[in-house]
Design goal:
CATH architecture: Sandwich
Number of helices: 4
Number of domains: 1
Distance between the termini: 11 Å
CATH superfamily: YjbQ-like
CATH topology: Jelly Rolls
Shape: elongated
Largest sheet: 5 strands, antiparallel
Mean pLDDT: 97
Number of strands: 8
Low-confidence stretches: none
Strand content: 35-45%
Helix content: 25-40%
Structural class: alpha+beta
């Protein structure tokens, strides 16, 4: 069993910006020499999350942002705002609900995902950011 740690870095727009990271994770696996194992993904920072979805315009442009706006609206007066003097209380609540990590198996150096399933990073912060996702592979190499 071997372990390798790589990183995906990218810029986001904030405010529930949803980024498809599937190809980036698959590229890391393909180039790693691992043939079977697990990819552990971790969103660095407390206002970003990782999950899986069907990455289609209705869901990622409208449905997910609308859902999160209903359960944790940006315009709510969060206690966090007074503590830190910022405006991203909703960002922290949303990220904690969705979660910061995900584990995905791979076989024959290929992620095991459903036909319409992609890996996404969601940036809930209120401003654009440079983001980092840790991709840690554990498994067997050639």
């Amino acid at each position: 069993m071997e372990i390798s740690t790589q990183y995906l870095t990218f810029d986001t727009k904030g405010r529930t910006d949803i980024i498809d990271i599937t190809k980036g994770v698959q590229t890391i696996i393909t180039e790693s020499g691992f043939v079977e194992g697990k990819a552990s993904l971790f969103a660095v920072g407390s206002t970003g999350s990782i999950t899986t979805v069907e990455y289609e315009p209705g869901l990622v442009k409208t449905d997910l942002p609308d859902f999160f706006e209903k359960i944790a609206p940006y315009k709510f007066d969060y206690a966090h705002h007074g503590t830190w003097g910022d405006d991203n209380g909703a960002s922290h609540v949303r990220a904690s609900l969705l979660g910061s990590s995900l584990e995905v198996p791979f076989v024959d150096s290929t992620l095991i995902l459903g036909t319409w399933q992609q890996l996404i990073f969601v940036d809930f912060d209120t401003q654009p950011r440079s983001r980092k996702v840790v991709v840690q592979l554990m498994g067997i190499k050639n």
